[in-house]
Specification:
about 70% helix, mainly alpha, 2 helices, about 100 residues
């Protein structure tokens, strides 16, 4: 009888993962469209100002990390659900303040 509940739980877990995968597949499609618009805007911005938009560059960098998290989840490389179902990456600042001695 215990084996039945374990099998049922695993099936439920698989169903939940399938639902999350479907959701993140839709999000990934939206991200790919967003990347297209960002690339076009950056190209136009670069033609006009002769340099890319720094804010958009940073956003594109963050978006690529998020897309990599989604792809990792969809391909079973990781079980960690991407944002908003798990906390975002808590990275340290690039130039940390030196410790006072």
């Amino acid at each position: 009888m215990e084996e039945q509940s374990v099998a049922k739980r695993d099936f439920t877990d698989d169903l939940m993962r399938a639902l999350f995968m479907l959701l993140f597949f839709v999000v990934a499609r939206f991200v790919s469209v967003l990347v297209t618009f960002i690339a076009l805007y950056q190209f136009i911005c670069t033609l006009i100002t002769r340099k890319p938009n720094d804010n958009l560059k940073d956003f594109g960098k963050d978006l690529s990390v998020y897309a990599a998290e989604i792809i990792g989840f969809l391909t079973y490389s990781t079980d960690k659900k991407p944002w908003p179902f798990s906390p975002g990456n808590e990275t340290e600042p690039e130039n940390p303040e030196p410790a006072a001695e």
